[in-house]
Amino acid sequence: MELKKLDVPTTSITEVKKSPMDVFEQAREAGTAVYVFNREKVAGVMLTQEQYENLLQELHSRPQVEEEPLESVAGLDDFLGVMREALITGSTVSAKNLDERMVALGFITRKTGFGGVVDMVNELKQTGKIVYQLRKKHNGTNIVAEVIGEQDNQASMFDKVIIKKIHLKEVE
Q1: Same domain, yes or no, for 43 and 79?
Q2: Domain boundary among 19, 40, 61
Q3: By residue range, what is the domain housing residue 154?
Q4: What is the CATH number of the domain that holds 41?
Q5: Are 42 and 156 in contact (CB under 8 A)?
Q6: pLDDT tens digits for range 122-151
Q7: Distance separating the N- and C-terminal Cα atoms of the chain
Q8: Could you give the dihedral angle defined by the CA atoms of residues 144, 150, 154 and 158, in that order, rounded to the nearest 10 degrees?
Q9: What DSSP designation does 71 have?
Q10: 3-state DSSP helix/strand/coil percent for the chain, to nearest 5?
Q11: Running DSSP on this structure, what letter comes out for residue 19?
């Protein structure tokens, strides 16, 4: 397995324990967060107070985007456009969050009963995709969405999914 090189400063948990102020200084000098590793896995991220407050301010100043249910969109191309705004290809998202976004867009949830997220991740591992069906027929046709991706093995949580592509299909 090839390790990814991060374009941000990194440190170890041991260094944080020795001198947390050095890590904050490293973040201040780099103008970005410092990833903290514990046994070759990201344990967390350290920011200066100013960086954290700037992130919060930026988050609160972002306009709220309401996700449009796909039943109200004209055609498959429009469906796909709305979905690509809600699910950015190349991004990493938890399986739970993916399911919540798909439900908000009008699809049937995949988290059925206990262990639904585990079932989603297993489907992704086996087939390379998670398949959703639109709750209501669109123009008399069933719509199926395939979220193609892979499990993010670098993430600390098992349910992180890297979204690679999104396909929509009309089915009988």
Answers
A1: no
A2: 61
A3: 70-171
A4: 3.40.1620.10
A5: yes
A6: 888 999 999 988 888 777 788 888 899 988
A7: 42
A8: 60
A9: G
A10: 40, 30, 35
A11: -
CA dist 66 and 75 (Å) reads 19
Q: Is the same domain home to 167 and 83?
A: yes
Q: Which amino acid is present at 162?
A: I
Separation CA 105–CA 31 (nearest Å): 37
Q: Which two tokens stand for residue 30?
A: 């780099």
When computed from its CA atoms, the radius of gyration of the chain, rounded to whole angstroms, is 20
Distance, in Å, from the CA atom of 69 to the CA atom of 52, rounded to the nearest integer, reads 33
DSSP string covering 99-144: HHHHHHTTBPPS--STTHHHHHHHHHHHHSEEEEEBSS-BTTBEEE
The tens digit of pLDDT for each residue in 109-123 reads 887 655 567 888 888
Lowest mean pLDDT among 39-43, 58-62, 139-143, 160-164: 58-62
Q: What pLDDT does residue 41 have?
A: 84
